[in-house]
């Protein structure tokens, strides 16, 4: 019954023009047709429907024998209340739809859904061949669908993953030309650059020309034309995408293009140069070192210079070390100096290490830079650096530098350095703060627990004893817990006992719980 009523209503509505102001009339006609049909339907005589003008032209229903004997239509009163169709004026919006969508307006579901889901599932499981085919089917079958442009991108991505680079390029170019407003258009630009870079690496002349055309700076670009100057995050800018694409190219082909980019030192090409410095550092040719050294010295942009200095860490030559030493001694740029210290720390030759040691003990050098030098010396874990840092500590008067030496020596894990830390903790000529730092790092870095436990009874200073209680609380050995229990039970200083009891409360060892219960029951 309900199905037939909807058939009647739909036929009446669909026979009406869909222009503005016609939907309300179509609805009224639908209601009139249903009212006229109700008595006939109630008697089960469907043939009488043929006389209703509103149903003219429904000859196709003649073969619907399955409708015979629908006695249930007698209860057609359920069709009352069709006022809910008042909002049907929204159908007017169909006029503005793309023709391919309008043809499917009656479908309850977008017909691209099943293809899209199947393609996405194939992509997620790594079946790139099936994914490319399914996304391609969607574009071929529904070229005007809202998802068509995105489907082209994902088809190209799947082809790229399968190393079918030429076909991937073709799809991405099509996306740019036909679906420039697709949600994945910006991603498409970046992927095209990667594809072109990979093709160029395999000797594709067209791809190499594309990279060269888009990566090379335009001769007429000027800093005054801000809209022509790409930013570092403008991944949809073809020049940025092309620079990124150089990462895929062979070094011999990429480096000449990078040299051209880095030679343009106007403000407009700053973002391109920042990208180019990194890519150059990954391309090892006879020219790489010369270009990086030139950029580190002469580029007008501070960040470009800093990046060039940073990436000199990947150039293990004496020329690079000499340049880094010169920058370290002459620059007033704190960030550039920090990059130079890092780059020297990554050079494994003896000269680079000596430059760091000399700088660390230069009293006239900025304290923060000396701290960085001390830190990087500690990270190299050499006996020579450890001996130097222990000797340097005795010469220092700046507490921050002393603290950095303590930390750096604690990172080596050597027995000699741990013994030095313990001696420092016991040295009454040192400040309480430095002795506490020595205890802390000795405990944190696996210092000899037996020595740490024995220190407690030898200490007279309250703050140092409190630091030792904390050190014991951070160790998981049984001896550390036993010492905390002893302090909680026998220490005469009530504050220290409270500290020990607190840390026992953080322990999951049943012995700690038993001791706490005993203290409660005292």
Textual characterization of the structure:
- The chain is mostly helical and 522 residues long.
- Helix 6 runs antiparallel to helix 7 (165-178), helix 14 (302-311) packs parallel to helix 16 and helix 16 (334-345) packs parallel to helix 18 (367-379).
- The protein has helices at residues 2-14, 23-42, 99-103, 112-124, 128-141, 148-161, 165-178, 185-201, 205-215, 238-245, 251-263, 270-281, 288-298, 302-311, 318-330, 334-345, 350-360, 367-379, 383-395, 399-410, 415-426, 432-444, 449-458, 462-473, 478-490, 494-505, 510-520.
- Among the domains are: 2-103, no CATH class; 448-522, no CATH class.
- 64% of the residues lie in helices and 0% in strands.
- It has 27 helices and no strands.
- The chain is flat.
Give the termini separation.
86 Å
Shape: flat
* Number of H/I helices: 27
Low-confidence stretches: 1-30, 39-108, 220-227
How many strands, what sense, and barrel or not for the largest sheet? Answer: none
Structural class: mainly alpha
| Strand-residue proportion | under 5%
Helix content: 55-70%
Number of strands: 0
The pLDDT mean sits at 79
| Quaternary structure type | single chain
**Radius of gyration from CA coordinates:** 40 Å
Instruction: Sketch the topology as an H/E string, one letter per element.
Output: HHHHHHHHHHHHHHHHHHHHHHHHHHH
């Amino acid at each position: 019954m309900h199905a037939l009523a909807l058939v009647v209503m739909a036929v009446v509505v669909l026979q009406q023009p869909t222009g503005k102001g016609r939907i309300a009339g179509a609805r009224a006609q639908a209601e009139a047709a249903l009212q006229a049909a109700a008595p006939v339907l109630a008697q089960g005589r469907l043939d009488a429907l043929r006389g209703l003008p509103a149903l003219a032209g429904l000859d196709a229903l003649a073969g619907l024998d399955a409708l015979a004997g629908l006695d249930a239509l007698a209860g057609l009163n359920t069709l009352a209340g069709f006022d809910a169709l008042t909002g049907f004026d929204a159908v007017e919006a169909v006029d503005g739809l793309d023709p391919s969508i309008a043809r499917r307006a009656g479908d309850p579901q977008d017909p691209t859904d099943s293809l899209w889901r199947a393609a996405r599932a194939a992509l997620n499981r790594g079946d790139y061949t099936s994914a490319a085919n399914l996304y391609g089917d969607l574009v071929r079958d529904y070229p005007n669908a809202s998802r068509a442009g995105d489907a082209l991108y994902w088809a190209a991505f799947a082809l790229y993953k399968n190393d079918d680079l030429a076909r991937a390029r073709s799809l991405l170019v099509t996306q740019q030309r036909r679906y420039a407003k697709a949600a994945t258009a910006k991603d498409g630009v970046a992927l095209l650059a990667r594809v072109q870079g990979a093709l160029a690496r395999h000797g594709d002349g067209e791809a190499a020309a594309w990279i060269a055309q888009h990566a090379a700076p335009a001769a007429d670009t000027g800093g005054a034309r801000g809209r022509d100057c790409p930013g570092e995050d403008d991944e949809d800018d073809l020049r940025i995408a092309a620079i990124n694409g150089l990462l895929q190219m062979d070094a011999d082909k990429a480096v000449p293009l990078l040299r051209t980019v880095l030679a343009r030192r106007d403000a407009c090409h700053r973002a391109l140069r920042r990208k180019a410095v990194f890519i150059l550092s990954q391309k090892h040719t006879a020219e790489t070192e010369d270009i990086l050294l030139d950029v580190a010295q002469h580029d007008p942009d501070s960040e470009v210079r800093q990046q060039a200095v940073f990436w000199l860490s990947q150039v293990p030559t004496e020329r690079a070390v000499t340049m880094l030493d010169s920058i370290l001694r002459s620059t007033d740029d704190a960030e550039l100096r920090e990059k130079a210290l890092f780059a020297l720390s990554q050079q494994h030759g003896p000269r680079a290490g000596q430059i760091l040691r000399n700088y660390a003990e230069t009293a006239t050098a900025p304290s923060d830079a000396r701290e960085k030098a001390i830190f990087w010396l500690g990270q190299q874990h050499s006996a020579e650096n450890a001996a130097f840092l222990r000797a340097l500590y005795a010469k220092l008067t700046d507490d921050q530098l002393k603290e950095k030496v303590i930390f750096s020596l604690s990172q080596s894990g050597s027995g000699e350095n741990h013994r030095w830390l313990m001696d420092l903790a016991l040295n009454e000529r040192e400040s309480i703060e430095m002795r506490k730092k020595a205890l802390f790092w000795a405990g944190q870095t696996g210092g000899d627990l037996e020595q740490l436990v024995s220190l407690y009874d030898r200490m007279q200073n309250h703050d140092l004893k409190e630091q030792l209680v904390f050190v014991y609380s951070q160790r998981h050995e049984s001896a550390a817990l036993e010492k905390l229990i002893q302090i909680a039970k026998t220490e005469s200083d009530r504050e220290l006992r409270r500290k020990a009891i607190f840390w026992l409360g953080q322990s999951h060892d049943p012995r700690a719980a038993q001791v706490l219960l005993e203290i409660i029951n005292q």
